[in-house]
Amino acid sequence: MAAYRVRVRTGTAPAAGTSDAIAVTLVGTRGRSPRTPLDRWGPDFVCGAVTEYTVHVPRPLGRLLLVQVHKGPCGGLPESSWYLETLSVWGQFGDTAGDTAEHGDSEDSGEEEEDSEDEVTEDEGTEDEGTGDSEGTGDTDEEEEPEEEELEEEPEEEEEPEDTEGDIGTATTGDPDDAAHAGPFHFPCYRWLEGYGTWELPEGTATTPAMERHPRLQRQRRRHLVQQRRRYRLAPFAPGLPWALPHGTPLDPDLSYSLPKATAFYLRGSAANLEAKLRGFLARPSSWPSVEAMTRVFRCFHTPVTEYVVQHWQEDAFFGEQFLSGVNPVLLRRCPRLPPNFPVTAPMVAPSLGPGTSLGREMEAGNIYLADYGVLDGLPTALIDGRPTFVAAPLCLLHQRPDGELRPLAIQLSQHPGPDSPIFLPGDPPWLWALAKAWVRSAEFHVHEGLTHLLRAHLLGEVFALATLRQLPPQHPVFKLLVPHTRFTVQIGALARRFLLNPGGVFDRAVALGRRGLLALVARGLRELRWRSLVLPRDLRHRGVTGTARHHFGHDATKVWGAIRRFVGALLALFYPSDGAVREDPELQAWVREIFRRGFLGRRRSGVPSRLDTVRGLVTFVTTIIYTCSAHHAATNSGQFELSAFPPNAPAAMREPPPRSKAALSEREFLAALPAMNTTATVLAVLWVLRNEPMDLVRPQTHPKPTPKTTLGPQNHPKTNPKPHRIHKLHPNPPQNHLKNHPGTPNPPQNHPGTPNPPQNCPAVLWVLRKELMDLVRPQTHPKTHPGTPNPPQNHPKTPNPLQNHPKTTPKPTPNPTGSTNSIQAQSHPKNHPGTPKPPQKPP
């Protein structure tokens, strides 16, 4: 007779406990235990409970492989969901019976054929892009589009039958290290268990398919992936866009917002709309009477940065600084020669350059930059309040002075030069020059929201997240690296399609492109996207801004990228000692192939790898995904409200066509071209919701400290505290629950399935009680992000100019065992763009 001690940890989220009957079956290399109910006197699995039980078996089970968790009805009580964090098992010490861990046992000796996803395959070719190291310059003339079959509904896959062997196997050969099988064995779950059924939790040690020797675990991996592909089926949302979950698909709680985050999200939206309604802005489709009147809408949304924007939006220095450290710092490029459709002459810009230099000299010195918005040319626009709106595709030439200031030299509001497309200069009448800059800022708003933010940070991030869930089992080391950074990625994508991209949604009501134009922009942007633009060092080199002065985004992002890459490289080297190990990992190759096909639509000229052949290529690929879902998203999302809410600085919908002459304008004519009051209020409310941090954010340097492993046997037993997994070498003091025993979400989304829907009619009391409600739902004991998330740079100290006076150095991120946004996040983003002071928690 042998005994095993089982410790069960229930999550701390609201309603995480359950009253259902719980039982477990332990499965080891020499058999399985009887189904054992977990029951003590009183409630067992309440919120935050850590309970221990004893499981008796006739003989030791050897090395434990997995635990089956059974959930069934309990008397006449209704079914209740259960958030199970982890399950740990300790066994009898000193067992020296036989074990067949490496050769299979009497029950699991029959290895079945490996499953493969039943999709139409295509010739992957022999191009060098597959290594993940090439920059993908897109030299091929013809673009290979996906096969027609790939656009059809995904085929069904047959699932392997569950193993139903008897209770206990028989020992065969001896194992001198069998005493190590006393444990502890850790079986992470970190998800909601809904309904009645059986869930299999494999032992948490990170393994690749080549490292998984036992037939039972091999079958479990394949069975899990088939179930995941059935659970998360993909479909095209719109022509030319990355694939996603079908529109309207209800999200299971493992992908949904946590209850604190959902509550705060909807309360913020309701409060912002309520404030706009109370002040009457949403009912005024008219122009602003003056620029001064615009500032009134900011009284309840005041931050230090918005105040700075209101005071300095007309300054050329502030206009130029936003290209380097604004919310879209990925467009500007060095200009060694003028494009043929931008006929700027040296005499035009001589007054702005000053004496002793010329346009040609400044180009040779590398001081001339170009912002080209040609991607907007010819896109359809929407009708707002019954009148047309307009979007330009401008070209903006800028000059960096010796002191580092970046100032505009010339602006052309069309890609087609001619008499009707004049070139505007700083010496033009003040309101005309202000209007020309406003048109550039409007184009910047559309490119930022449609391509830099929506496409790169969300739509592609959603493909990364779903491909990871569908093609990688929880034991895979790449799964463990990525899961923290894709937290809530699928949920926010679903919300965007529901509220922003739906017909009649925010884009149709407040943005010039509207839904139709935005989808066309995203499709065009994805068609023109190149892999090098996602790999930060290559992108900076390609745009020629590597050494640009005051490029605070580039300076800080390079440090964050380097920290992520060093950590990813060190960790993956433990599992992929050679390039051959990468090539021979079928799960990894299926994951990359799905990202290539579903995210980038199989376009080879994009340079996106369709397979990985080297360790270096794998490290670059994983680093790019983590950076995109975390640091890139933070830089392009968190400063939206501060820099884009004031209409003249980022007009969402221009109501007059671009000026066709250089006649002087008045302030009234300038305001007539800007968005109306109701449009401004709608955009402001949306940006206010997006800029606020999640209620369950785990800040840098606040992760729980590692605790020594708990031992249940004799303190001096040599096998009680076994040597840590070799992955612990990355940390001098390895945490107990990291990659070795943590395949699930380290900072799990612990919201109850009953997450509230956005209120239709928000009562006015919500505005009064906003702070109290937020404090009430703020989780004081929420599970922290796993101590493996690289810490983003800290917010820089407040300065009079939050963009120009940004320090050139930031605290170096600390690489930790699980990666980064989202957060992957969990996505733990820097909540402000570099140089942006941290906003207050609530408006004054």
TrEMBL record:
PANTHER family reported in the protein's UniProt record: LIPOXYGENASE
Biased composition annotated in UniProt, kind: Acidic residues: 107-166
Residue ranges, annotated region (Disordered): 94-182, 698-762, 779-844
Record field: compositional bias (Basic residues): 720-731
BP terms from Gene Ontology: lipid oxidation
Entry keywords, A to Z: Dioxygenase, Iron, Lipid metabolism, Metal-binding, Oxidoreductase
Name of the protein described by the UniProt record: Uncharacterized protein
Cofactor entry: Fe cation
Any single Pfam family the record assigns to this protein: PLAT
Segments of skewed composition (Polar residues): 796-806
Sequence similarity: Belongs to the lipoxygenase family.
GO terms, molecular function: metal ion binding; oxidoreductase activity, acting on single donors with incorporation of molecular oxygen, incorporation of two atoms of oxygen
InterPro entries per UniProt: LipOase (IPR000907), LipOase_C (IPR013819), LipOase_C_sf (IPR036226), LipOase_Fe_BS (IPR020833), PLAT/LH2_dom (IPR001024), PLAT/LH2_dom_sf (IPR036392)
Biased composition (Pro residues): 745-761
